[in-house]
Specification:
The chain is 5% helix and 37% strand. By secondary structure, the protein is mainly beta. The longest helix has 7 residues.
């Protein structure tokens, strides 16, 4: 059974004619965020742009909204979210923007209402640092990148 959490969402004036983000399928974990652009934006090869979604949200305390790439855009066009996952904190009330990057060899056109990213609601646990002189030993120890093999 899928549990739902109510989220207050404010549609901003430049997104008044766009639908709210929704789940593409019954089993989807993320809602599709839409580009709330007034005109087409060209995302040139190896360029990045900040794209507005036209919504602001009130994420409940104890949660974050993670902004993630859409696999189809990444696989077919090389377009992804550069700071993935992006985080919308519970105390942020501004518009959600998505930082897209085009890793492809050709330019990509972002159009109004295009599904550009996903938002996934995730519970968070905050760190309570406990300073120590020594850390407990493990089999790996301080072995860094590549220390466990291929």
């Amino acid at each position: 059974m899928i549990r739902t959490i109510p989220i207050h969402v404010k549609r901003l004036p430049h997104a008044a004619t766009l639908p709210l983000p929704s789940y593409a399928t019954v089993g989807a974990s993320g809602v599709d965020l839409l580009a709330a652009v007034e005109r087409d934006i060209v995302l040139y090869s190896y360029d990045r742009r900040v794209i507005p979604t036209g919504i602001a949200v009130a994420v409940p305390s104890g949660y974050e909204l993670q902004i993630r790439p859409r696999s189809g855009l990444a696989a077919k066009h090389g377009v992804t979210v550069i700071n993935t996952p992006g985080t919308i904190d519970a105390d942020y009330r501004g518009e959600i923007h998505v930082v897209l990057v085009n890793h492809g060899d050709t330019h990509f056109i972002i159009t109004r209402g295009m599904r550009i990213a996903q938002a996934v609601l995730c519970p968070i646990v905050q760190i309570d640092w406990q300073p120590v002189v020594e850390l407990p030993d493990t089999g790996r120890g301080g072995g860094g990148f590549g220390s466990t093999g291929v």
